[in-house]
Amino acid sequence: MTGRLLRRDRLAIAAIRAAVAILQASVLFGLRESYRSPTDDLIFAPVLMVAIFVPVVAAAGIGELSPKWLFAWMAAATILCAGLATFAVLRDRTASGPSGFLFWCGFTARLGIILLIFHCLVTATAADRRWPPTAATSRDYSWTLIVRLLLVALATLLAYGGIVSVASLVRPADIVEGTPRLDAPGILLLTIGVIHLAFAATTRWSSGVRATRAVLLASLCWLLPATVVLAIALSCSLFLSGGTPMEGSASAALLGCAALLILLINAGPWPEGRAGSRLLRHARWAGAILIAPLVAGAAVVWTTAYETNGATPASMTVLAWMTIAAPFAAGYGWTAIASGAKLRRLANTNLLAVPFAGLVLIAISTPLADPARLAVQAQYSRLVSGRVAPDAFDYGLLRFEGARYGREALERLARLHGTPRDNDIAQRAAAALALTDADN
């Protein structure tokens, strides 16, 4: 009787997975056939983001979450995807060309990170039936999900290569100038099927996922000493040079190194560093100490660039990442000082900093903290307050990088009149408004 019930449950789960895959393919096909022009983006973009991410949330949650938890999380993910995509469209309904493509690539990646963060929190909370979940549960579910996603991505890439190879022989129309058409019906359908089959396989054969996770974490641990040396070199080069030679992408490099340290520290022995070699224990301690200088160095470089050039959407995005890194820097540094190489209560920092990171990423995807809006507001204030001369102001930044906020600011500037300075600003703003994307 138990075996029969088990087989029945497996068949039910397989049927649900198949239904989710068919529904996802149907919606994507419908969007592909119905899209006509950018005027449809206000409907198209939210539905597309929901169709891409919510079925993946379902595929990752089936077998891991109870139906109540899964449906609640899918509903929240649907609202999140649709809402943020709507804000993204309203941010700049005229976005096109390479800049528009890059914006949507960045938005999609950011939305994926947001969903990854909260999916890990939801599964860990559901497993422990409490908030906050224990450190061991959070780590276990987070790394398991990351490994599952890596395996799914690998399987999808391998299958996609095979699908394209076969399609080039069977349906040459799906290959245009040697490049596969990503929206070709057969290729899209088979790719979606492979993704859902891969999720089912990683759920069914959890022992293989655990073995892969163990190998991955062991490999990552031994990258930590080299990353600590890199962090020391970056910190020394920054403070010895006074920050000037490192301006430009220096803040991003320092924050990237800090993020890598956070990742590798959490890949190490858990909790309290009782396992592993003495080298790894001391490398984890040194890494926890070094995160604060790296974030502080990024802040110094960012401040120097801000005082020189003012705000840009890119610099405000870096500011958001510094805001995310600050709780990690403070928490990890304090833990390393207070508990030494054992790094006791490091999990407490993660339980506070990780949800905070997700909330910051949501905020910068809305008008509340949109980097473009904040940059335009700061640049507009610099110009009208007289801190920058009209002929030294970058009107093109507002026109091409400020989204609709920049164009609205230029329209306000173009209406200025009265003093010679106001007239000069108005003339330059009107000229900037007349520029097209070809002039960028």
From TrEMBL:
Keyword flag Secreted: no
Organism taxonomic ancestry: Bacteria, Pseudomonadati, Pseudomonadota, Alphaproteobacteria, Hyphomicrobiales
Domain of life: Bacteria
Entry protein name: DUF4153 domain-containing protein
Organism of origin: Enhydrobacter aerosaccus
Transmembrane feature ranges: 12-31, 43-62, 69-89, 101-124, 145-170, 182-202, 214-240, 252-271, 283-306, 318-337, 349-369
Keyword terms: Membrane, Transmembrane, Transmembrane helix
Keyword Transferase appears in the UniProt entry: no
